[in-house]
Design goal:
This protein has about 250 residues and is of the alpha/beta class. The chain folds into two domains: about 5-10 and about 15-110, no CATH class; about 120-245, Rossmann fold. The protein contains eleven helices and eleven strands. The strands form three sheets. A five-stranded parallel sheet has the order 8-7-9-10-11. The protein has a four-stranded mixed sheet with strand order 3-4-6-5, sandwiched between helices. A hairpin with a 4-residue loop joins strand 1 (about 30-35) and strand 2. About 40% of the residues are buried.
Amino acid sequence: MKRDRARDLLTQVADGTLDLEHALDALVLDPTESLGFATIDHHRALRQGFPEVVFGGGKSAEQVVAIAKRIAERGDGVLVTRVAPDAAALLLDAMPGIECNAVARTAFLRPAVASPVAKSTVLVITAGTSDLSVAEEAAVTLDSMGCRAERLTDVGVAGIHRLLSQRRTLEDAGVVIVVAGMDGALASVVGGLVRVPVIAVPTSVGYGAAFHGLAPLLTMLNCCAAGVTVVNIDNGFGAAVAAARILH
């Protein structure tokens, strides 16, 4: 249950439009639920603003569907990340209305009542087309958390004029997420151009010396532009959650 839903219940009790027993029935649901193979945190949204997100990696398709359905039954929607194709097919069959994004490897069922939308937008920038999977994971996560995401694709430092021609887009963003592999230099460039928070996401894209994302991670951690925050390799989800918390 999200905080705004709990607040509405308490307000209705206060003004007499909802009796106390019905409000208690809605509030006393156990904060956790065991499925044997998973323990769901149903009060995550009440504490943090967003429901628990299901990480699909390492779970069977049946486990993913079972967890997602139990979370969605509370009415707050559900987001599943790193969804394998077989799990995506099963989710589409089991949960009408769920939106599967093959590029992002996500599945998102919108809540019964839309979340408040942040006033500012998050600009998700990719250095190359090969970084799109991680960037789309960030964009879908932002959508699920009530943030508008704009995209700026394939503007890496190998052709820096592509980025510099988009100065107005950069200036209009409330937060910028920079997704880059190879040398990861784009985050430092963007960090030197904008005044808003910049969250850098290193990706595992690159030749052997990129060490599956370690090289761009170290570049971003050693960024010469002040104030750039770095998340883990390929962690578009984590970058989006950080951006959503900043804007909300």
